Amino acid sequence: MEANRILPDLQSALICEDVRQERGGNFILIGILSSLRVPKVPISALKLFFFSRWTAGFGVFKESIHLVAPDQTTVVRKSQIKFTLRDPSQNWTNVTMFTQVTFKLEGVYYVEIMVDDVMKLRFPLPVTISKPKDSDPAEPPDGPESENEQPGSKE
Predict the structure, then answer these.
(1) What is the C-alpha separation between 17 and 54, in angstroms, rounded?
(2) pLDDT digits over 127-136, tens only?
(3) Domain segments of the chain: what residues?
(4) In this structure, what DSSP letter does residue 145 have?
(5) What is the SS3 assignment for 47?
(6) In this structure, which topology does domain 9-130 adopt according to CATH?
(7) Sign for the pseudo-dihedral over CA of 57, 62, 67, 70
(8) Closest CA to 6 of 119, 113, 90
(9) CA–CA separation, 9 vs 127, rounded Å?
(10) Could you tell me if 103 and 15 are in contact, meaning their C-beta atoms sit under 8 angstroms apart?
């Protein structure tokens, strides 16, 4: 019996600041993000890239990506894209770009990645407010006070 459809596995999924592709087809991911530190909210991210790779499937599928607000109900942004795997030994890479994403609140946002409405992965994207350090020129920077106190130095 020949299979006419096999739901694929999500091999990887990452959020980054940019994605480029070499002439040979390999991808370069720039600025892989695990959280966002921002000076204030609300704030907009110019671009966020979602890199996902699917494998071990057969058929035509619909990938959905949802960025969910800290209330875990509000979908801040979503995308859908169709892709085809003609052989279970192949893989398929989707790169989705969200532009001008507004983060209205500090907190933990969630990225949900689905194929044909089946949740394959859900992971947190914390957005935290980063307080700027007071830069007092009279105060020395953190660190050893003299060369003799550096770790690994021999007298």
Answers:
(1) 21
(2) 999 987 765 5
(3) 9-130
(4) S
(5) strand
(6) Immunoglobulin-like (2.60.40)
(7) negative
(8) 90
(9) 28
(10) no
